[in-house]
Amino acid sequence: MNVKETVRIHSRPTGEEGKEIGLKMNEHHFKLWGWGLNHVSVEPDSSILDVGCGGGRAVSILAELAEKGKIYGVDHSQDMVDLATEYNSKEIGIGRVTIMESSVSELPFPYDKFDLVTAFETCYFWPDLEEGLREIKRVLKKGGTLLIVNEMYDHELFAERNTPYNTAKGMNIYSAEEYRKALNSAGFLAVEIDEVPEDNWITVVAKK
């Protein structure tokens, strides 16, 4: 599979191949998610949204952390919604988790709903970073937190710069300062960024 096809299937996993990708992400990103979540405090009764929930394991982790809270997951791939629903069937059955099909550009939630919004390995596939950030800010409560956790893809395959952001084969690869600029433009406060270059990891935390 070439780079273009790899990016395409990861950006919107569909079909049997997409399901395999979702299951692999559930396993391969577990350590990265744990590292990222160490940067925020999750209260037991938190209301949380996971944007781009993929195979659903991150939603399960969030449900364990917010044991008395309510967790929502959204993904723009119906096949990933189905997979995440299957993965979280127990918590969905008791009403603690809800999985829905949605784009980050138009979230199906009212203003000021969530204490925490997470975005794991997803924002470089968003159609417009600042638009997505503004929509997330809308659904966050005042004082709420956005957590972005990504791999940085510091590799020659992703070195092209065709736009103000680092565009690579259909992925938008953002530097720490590009995240900061976009978040400030979207109206977020107190942006904090942590990087682990040897692991190719970046975490961004911002407050509404």
UniProtKB/TrEMBL annotation:
It comes from Methanococcoides burtonii (strain DSM 6242 / NBRC 107633 / OCM 468 / ACE-M). One of its GO terms (biological process) is sterol biosynthetic process. One of its GO terms (molecular function) is sterol 24-C-methyltransferase activity. Residues 45-160 form the Methyltransferase domain. This is Methyltransferase. The keyword Electron transport does not apply. It comes from the Archaea. The keyword Ribosomal protein does not apply.
